[in-house]
Design a protein that fits this description.
Helices cover about 45% and strands about 5% of the residues. The protein has six helices and four strands, in the order αααααββββα. The longest helix is centred in the N-terminal third of the chain and has 24 residues. About 25% of the residues are buried. The structure holds zinc ion (2 copies). One zinc ion binds next to α1.
């Protein structure tokens, strides 16, 4: 018996036919979309490892930062302990909850990335309906995608914005935040969060 009346990810009210789910359909689709982006990005990270390289684009001269011998952020994302390990840890967790045998990994890390994503996609309907930490899952998958995109494209990490709840508390969010619960107990969905007034003035370039 599940008494959750709101999606645990975005905090929006569940439809009548979604009441037995932890995450709403929209969030489930979003997780699926984030998951499916990962193998391609992961492969591109290999290219981002070469000093000064930008995978998939022409080399840019006069870049603002001096090239390092090895760009460390993509390394930590692509090495063991990065993207693949995070995904595999979730898959092991789901297998344990379902009392399935421990999943096996085969091939190189790029191949393992594809395998674990395919497997998680297959289990996603179950995860969205039943996994008590599906909100954490959604957040981590989104973060991984954001970090990979930032590394592959050379974009800077997403900026945090502070918004004010009417209770006086400050909530730090990014444009990717799907939902948040304030300490006063108020639950905000994505749209409601973005509609809150800014808690601090952002500097405006003269
Ligand atoms: Zn949702
Ligand atoms: Zn509040």
């Amino acid at each position: 018996m599940n008494t959750t009346a709101a999606c645990v990810v975005c905090h929006s009210a569940l439809w009548q036919d979604e009441l037995d789910r932890m995450a709403c359909r929209r969030c489930t689709l979003r997780i699926s979309d984030d998951l499916s982006a990962l193998p391609g990005l992961y492969e591109q990270l290999g290219g981002a490892l070469a000093p000064g390289s930008r995978a998939g684009g022409p080399a840019v001269s006069g870049s603002r930062t001096a090239p390092l011998p090895l760009r460390l952020a993509p390394l930590s994302l692509s090495a063991k302990g990065g993207v693949v390990t995070v995904l595999q840890t979730w898959l092991v967790d789901v297998h344990e909850l379902l009392e399935y045998p421990h999943p096996r990994w085969e091939g190189d890390l790029v191949g393992q990335c594809r395998q674990v994503v395919a497997r998680l996609q297959l289990l996603l309907p179950w995860i969205a309906e039943n996994h008590p930490a599906v909100d954490e899952f959604a957040r981590e998958i989104r973060q991984l995608r954001g970090q990979c995109v930032a590394q592959v494209t050379g974009e800077r990490p997403v900026r945090t914005v502070a918004v004010a709840c009417p209770c006086g508390a400050t909530l730090r969010i990014t444009l990717d935040t799907l939902g948040r619960r304030c300490t006063c107990g108020e639950q905000y969905g994505r749209e409601a969060l973005l509609g809150l007034p800014l808690a601090e003035r952002r500097e405006v370039a003269a």
